[in-house]
């Protein structure tokens, strides 16, 4: 399970929490402009926008969990088990495999508007990366530095593209139902509530934060969708890049999963393996891991993007504790 957010203050920040029970050895991977993008059913793209993101590199191919390009367009794939459906190859469509989908979009599109145009004739097809690496059931959040965002879901009804007015995504159910569910929490507020239950009674405000009393706090995807939408909507605006990056990570960490709380098999627990976010203006990629809460950063080397070899950076997982005495 996962959570993804576009947070637009000053610059725009796009990224996600990756919640799983096992790590895949992912790295921060920069794909420069001349790294040839080979597709299973489409022509190779020899030159494209540079991409930075979190990926598993397999046979020199970056399998991106999420990323953003040099133009300020971000994209993240989140678990969508159940509703997700991929198709056989179709002669009248642009046939893209789900593991190619992130570089296919980010390599060619600079904005959400361009992505929507590109997606009009796309079909996500059921071809695994290899015998050992089967496709994951996913849906995707795509956002740009203007704050515009869309959700892309491939179901039995076809490829559905939804405008996303809240700029967040978690997992099941399908996006329109997630959006509708927000109506159940529209009275939640950071302010103390007014007494509309019995106006003639003097009811005590016995605690701070009573306005958020009914805000859900479970590990499930509907609860996280509501919680992160509320947190993002009420997040402060910083005066500096550092303040906004910190605020962004607090939004993601408001719905992070701790070990021991989400059992997916006997004695096996899902947890937030990493949280990441890219400044869509500067191209700086930030991340934290479960074992290292320090914010780490990888800058997009804009003077060295016209090359054809991947640049990879291992995650800094070792705990960093600042001992003051």
From TrEMBL:
Pfam families: CBAH (PF02275)
InterPro entries with a match to the protein in the record: CBAH, CBAH/NAAA_C, Ntn_hydrolases_N, Peptidase_C59
Domain Choloylglycine hydrolase/NAAA C-terminal: 2-313
CDD domains: Ntn_PVA (cd00542)
GO molecular function: choloylglycine hydrolase activity
Pathway: Lipid metabolism; bile acid biosynthesis
Source domain of life: Bacteria
TM regions (residue ranges): none
Catalytic activity: taurodeoxycholate + H2O = deoxycholate + taurine; cholate + taurine = taurocholate + H2O
One of the protein's GO biological processes: lipid metabolic process
Keywords linked to the UniProt accession: Hydrolase, Lipid metabolism
EC number: 3.5.1.24
Cross-referenced NCBIfam families: bile_salt_hydro (NF038245)
Family: Belongs to the peptidase C59 family.
Protein name: choloylglycine hydrolase
Native source species: Limosilactobacillus frumenti DSM 13145
């Amino acid at each position: 399970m996962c959570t993804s957010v576009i947070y637009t203050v000053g610059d725009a920040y796009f990224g996600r929490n990756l919640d799983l029970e096992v790590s895949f050895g992912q790295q921060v991977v920069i794909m420069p402009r001349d790294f040839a993008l080979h597709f299973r059913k489409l022509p190779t793209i020899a030159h494209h926008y540079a991409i930075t993101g979190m990926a598993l590199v397999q046979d020199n191919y970056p399998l991106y969990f999420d990323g953003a390009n040099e133009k300020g367009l971000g994209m993240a794939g989140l678990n969508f088990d159940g509703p997700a459906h991929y198709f056989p190859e179709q002669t009248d469509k642009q046939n893209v495999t789900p593991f190619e989908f992130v570089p296919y979009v980010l390599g060619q599109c600079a904005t959400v508007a361009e992505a929507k145009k590109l997606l009009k004739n796309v079909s996500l097809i059921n071809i695994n990366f290899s015998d050992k690496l089967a496709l994951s059931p996913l849906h995707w959040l795509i956002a740009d530095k203007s704050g515009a965002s869309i959700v892309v879901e491939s179901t039995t009804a076809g490829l559905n593209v939804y405008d996303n007015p809240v700029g967040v995504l978690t997992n099941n159910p399908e996006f329109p139902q997630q959006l509708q569910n927000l109506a159940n929490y529209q009275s939640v507020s950071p302010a103390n509530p007014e007494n509309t239950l019995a106006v003639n009674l003097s009811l005590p405000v016995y605690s701070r934060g009573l306005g958020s009393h009914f805000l859900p706090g479970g590990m499930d995807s509907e609860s996280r969708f509501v919680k992160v939408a509320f947190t993002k909507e009420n997040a402060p605006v910083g005066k500096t890049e550092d303040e906004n990056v910190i605020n962004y990570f607090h939004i993601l960490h408001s719905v992070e999963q701790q070990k021991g709380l989400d059992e997916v098999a006997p004695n096996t627990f899902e947890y937030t393996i990493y949280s990441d976010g890219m400044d869509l203006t500067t191209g700086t990629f930030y991340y934290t891991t479960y074992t290292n809460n320090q914010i780490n950063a990888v800058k997009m080397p804009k003077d060295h993007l016209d090359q054809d070899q991947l640049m990879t950076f291992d995650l800094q997982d070792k705990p960093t504790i600042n001992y003051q005495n």
